[in-house]
Design a protein that fits this description.
By secondary structure, the protein is α/β, with parallel strands linked by helices. Helix content is 24%, strand content 23%. The protein has seven helices and eleven strands. It has helices spanning 2-19, 38-50, 69-72, 96-107, 126-132, 247-250, 253-268; strands at residues 25-31, 55-61, 84-87, 111-115, 147-151, 154-158, 171-177, 191-197, 210-217, 224-233, 236-241. The termini are far apart.
Length: 311
């Protein structure tokens, strides 16, 4: 009887532990400068992550553009306090000490997530470009590395001369999964419609240790351009999404789900907290907007008659 009681107790403990929710992951969300409306998009990113109940978010706002060195010295986030850093930043170069600390954090095993124009940042910071793999604008060209695209399931590295970064008019476009077995994309439809956004193309960079998870066909290059990527930087994991130009672009169930999964994967290498596919995930022919009080605040531009390569 005593042996049975102990066995029953052990079983109950095991079941209880199995049902215990995993602790939320600590996210540092960096913002404060961007050629996009960071004041509007940062609350949406925060909601996208918090609404999963998988994360706790701390927002770190940098000094304003053009701030003097003394002001910048007041901004020194302790990256080690967080499981993963998410960047909604595109602006002035961080101080040397912050850059060194960030490199040590990611290479030592910290997670990093680059969102949309964060890949426009820091064209002259070599280690940052190794982290994100490819980027656009910021002086990037063939000297920065190859242009990456996918054709017939194969990754191409085009080294011909050309500027890094372009996009046509904003529009809805289909995301096509290239790696369905990765934790970030596992269980998602092979093709799903993303809401109105900029479709980045001609991104260039070192492209080391990179895997392309999803693409979309560019209206400029007519190639499958990377939208969702993962990289290894030292011991750290990086998730890079080119999606998310405006708040209306982020208010897409596909964006929410892939950001949640990508952030968890960057922090842990798995997607246990965010694995469930939402019932309202987009289909191949139907986008799925997310409702958020007070948003969207931005208004999409009127359709343009011809493609443009401006940011």
């Amino acid at each position: 009887m005593i042996r049975l009681s102990f066995s029953l107790l052990a079983l109950l403990v095991a079941v209880s532990l199995a049902r215990s929710p995993l602790p939320p992951l600590r996210v540092l969300l960096i913002t404060g400068q961007n050629n996009h409306k960071w004041e509007i998009t940062t609350p949406v990113l925060k909601h996208a992550l918090e609404s999963s109940d998988a994360f706790t978010i701390t927002v770190s706002t940098t000094p304003a553009k053009g701030a003097d060195p003394a002001t910048w010295q007041t901004w020194h986030p302790n990256f080690a306090d967080y499981d993963v850093v998410v960047s909604n930043y595109n602006g002035d170069l961080w101080p040397d000490s912050v850059r060194a600390a960030f490199e040590a954090y990611v290479s030592g095993g910290g997670g990093f997530v680059s969102v949309h124009a964060a890949n426009n940042s820091f064209g002259d910071w070599p280690e940052y470009n190794r982290m994100i793999g490819v980027g656009g604008w910021g002086g990037r060209d063939e000297k920065s590395g190859p242009w990456l695209y996918v054709k017939d399931g194969k990754l191409y590295r085009d080294t011909t001369p050309g500027k890094g970064g372009a996009h046509g008019p904003q529009h809805e476009f289909a995301i096509e999964i290239q790696q369905p077995d990765h934790p970030i994309t596992r269980g998602l439809p092979p093709r799903w419609l993303h809401t109105r956004d900029e479709l980045y193309s001609s991104l260039r960079g070192p492209a080391e240790n990179i895997e392309i998870l999803a693409t979309a066909t560019s209206d400029l290059t007519h190639q499958h351009e990377p939208n969702l990527m993962v990289l290894q930087y030292g011991k750290g994991r990086v998730f890079h999404t080119t999606l998310g130009h405006a708040d209306y672009s982020m208010l897409c169930r596909g964006f929410y789900e892939t950001l949640q999964r990508g952030t968890e994967w960057a922090a842990t290498g798995e997607c246990q907290r965010t694995a469930e596919v939402p019932a309202d995930f987009p289909t191949a022919d139907q986008a799925s907007p997310v409702a958020l009080a007070g948003h969207p605040q931005q208004v999409p531009p009127s359709p343009k008659p011809a493609a443009s390569a401006t940011k």
